[in-house]
Specification:
The complex is a heterodimer of chains A (113) and B (115).
Chain A lengths: L2 E4 L4 E4 L4 E8 L5 E7 L6 E7 L4 E4 L2 E6 L4 E6 L8 E8 L8 E2 L3 E6 L1
Parallel strand pairs in A: 2-11
Antiparallel strand pairs in A: 1-3, 3-8, 4-5, 4-9, 6-7, 7-8, 9-10, 9-11
Chain B lengths: L4 E3 L2 E4 L5 E6 L6 E7 L6 E7 L2 E4 L8 E4 L6 E5 L8 E8 L9 E2 L3 E5 L1
Parallel strand pairs in B: 2-11
Antiparallel strand pairs in B: 1-3, 3-8, 4-5, 4-9, 5-6, 7-8, 9-10, 9-11
Classes of the chains: A mainly beta (113), B mainly beta (115).
Chain lengths: 113, 115
């Protein structure tokens, strides 16, 4: 069956450092991989999308890589700030448009002063 | 522009009772999705509407769950009768539709507790 794994342990880093979160998947061939941010009591908020034929995508302090051979995506937040503290979810999508998302369990990130 | 709204934000009911959750998507969004997160698990897809039609209901757990989207606007998700395992957070999302990538916008969720 399809499985998406994210770091189950919470990730604590110091302000200013780069946070790196991992998303691994098995038994799946996604066309798109998306990263979402979720704060307590709120719904997921879309951050970035990367296509299967793209190796890397950047947006401001965020960078996502997608390796379909390793079946892995890495999500980086550079110059991290306490406001970046949240749960980050990866989600896989076969079509990128009008299709259901398959989510990982999420990784909780805490950025400390 | 208003985002996706959900009502109620919390609901506590007894096992065997009925509960109806409501989702108002972003105006003009043809796609509407329901997802659920049970304690300690990942967010899981329930179903997908395109306008008023059910496009994919492969994630609906059983026939105690009924989703509707009359007129292609807001949607309701009814659970009847509710069981303990139905407890969790129910998220609604909407997207515009059309060609190309299509970002889903999520509501804040309804936290359902079945006692």
């Amino acid at each position: 069956s399809q499985k998406i794994e994210q770091n189950s342990e919470a990730l604590n880093i110091q302000e200013g450092k780069t946070a790196t979160l991992t998303c691994n998947y098995t038994n799946y061939s996604p066309a798109y991989l998306q990263w979402y941010r979720q704060d307590p009591g709120r719904g997921p908020v879309f951050l970035l999308l990367i296509r299967e034929n793209e190796k890397e995508k950047r947006k401001e302090r965020l960078k996502v890589t997608f390796d379909t051979t390793l079946k892995q995506s890495l999500f980086h937040i550079t110059a991290s700030q306490p406001a970046d503290s949240a749960t980050y979810l990866c989600a896989l999508d076969r079509t990128g448009g009008g299709n259901k998302l398959t989510f990982g369990t999420g990784t909780q990130l805490k950025v400390e002063l | 522009e208003a985002g996706v709204t959900q009502f109620p934000s919390h609901s506590v009911i007894e096992k065997g009772q009925t509960v109806t959750l409501r989702c108002d998507p972003i105006s003009g969004h043809d796609n509407l999705y329901w997802y659920r997160r049970v304690m300690g698990k990942e967010i899981k897809f329930l179903l997908h509407f395109v306008k008023e039609s059910k496009q994919d209901e492969s994630g609906m757990p059983n026939n105690r769950f009924l989703a509707e989207r009359t007129g292609g606007t807001y949607s309701t998700l009814k659970v009847q009768p509710a069981e303990l395992e139905d407890s969790g957070v129910y998220f609604c999302a909407s997207s515009h539709g059309g060609a190309g990538t299509d970002t889903q916008y999520f509501g804040p969720g309804t936290r359902l507790t079945v006692l």
